[in-house]
Amino acid sequence: MTETSGTTVSVGAARIDRVEEQYLPVPFIALTDDKDFIARRITPLPDGFLDPATMTFQFSNHSWVVRVDGLTVLVDPCNGNGRKRGVSYFDDLDLPYLERLAAAGAPAETIDVVFCTHLHHDHCGWNTMRVDERWTPTFPNAVYLFVDTEYRRWDTRSPDPDRAPQADSGTTGDLNVFDECVRPVVEAGLAKIISAPYPISPSLSVEAAPGHTFGHSMLRLTSEGAHAYLTGDALHHPAQVSRPKLHLPGCDDLAAAIETRRRLFSRLYEEDALLFPAHFAAPHYGRLDLDGDEFVFLPGNATRGSDRRNRHVNLTSRTENQQPSF
Fold it and tell me: Which of 90, 114, 227, 308 is most open to solvent, judged by the fewest CB atoms within 10 Å of its CB?
């Protein structure tokens, strides 16, 4: 793995670029007020993960662009401009997201695949844009991949009981998002409804990571022996690496989300894989290490500090039915 410029990372033969939309501050107390834990695990991290003056952390809204196997894949296209979401941070945005995408070498017309880890407003907004008073697909040459469970959960015409409107995350209007950001793509013939696991290419696959939403999924990358996971909202902050039970509001199934995190972290560690979440502050990605029996987040290009063979014993004691099942 090499880091080239900005948040551009090479994983095997693949290139991963970050495309920023916006930041917003989130009170850290939404996760925990445990001062000892904060001092031990959070204070050593880069500043964006906690501002001690305001006790907030930077919540980054960004997409990842993955280039591998001759494909350009856009993961989680953020909020989008000109929306009404009932929250000031998301209402009537006018941000140069598409310009930033082009600056990363991936203009809208060059995107081959769009993958939304789930269908909350901040992960599918740029699926469409307003053209002549209509919501129109932003990426005209792309195939948009929607996981079937997630698609049914938010389809406003679906009788599926798991759609559970009362589980909507906060006041951001996710129940309107489907008709703005998903249905126009389907009607344009650009959508493919898939079941996880689903192979996109020899190096890329969609894998289930449920809990945050019923159909929440992630993207796995394996190239030339290197591994990376683009994990959407499986976690929002490095605090959850050490304490998987910590969470922000808005999960469809909190118990499943916690179990997903636990299994994911074991897998990330065992594979020495890179983690690319949807909302981490700079440097936005990293890997996991073990400190005693607790996972810790190593930001960016940091390497593990101890002999991993000695640390592996804590993981191999699991029974077979406890192994990761993504």
Answer: 308
49-to-54, 137, 236, 302 alpha-carbon distances in Å: 12, 34, 10, 16
pLDDT (0 to 100) of residue 303: 87
Within its chain, how far is the Cα of 60 from the centroid?
11
Q: What is the mean pLDDT of each run of 10 residues along the chain (326 residues)?
A: 61 97 97 97 97 97 98 98 88 94 97 97 96 95 97 84 47 70 97 98 98 97 98 98 96 97 98 98 97 96 64 31 29
Collapsing DSSP to helix, strand or coil, 183 comes out as: helix
DSSP, collapsed to helix, strand or coil, labels residue 230 as strand
Q: Which pair of tokens denotes residue 151?
A: 């698609």
CA gap 157, 167 in Å, rounded: 17
**How many CA within 13 A on the CB side of residue 175?**
12
Model pTM score: 0.89
DSSP states of 231-273: EETS-SSTHHHH-TT---S--S-HHHHHHHHHHHHHHHHHHT-
Taken in order 164, 168, 173, 174, the sign of the CA dihedral is negative
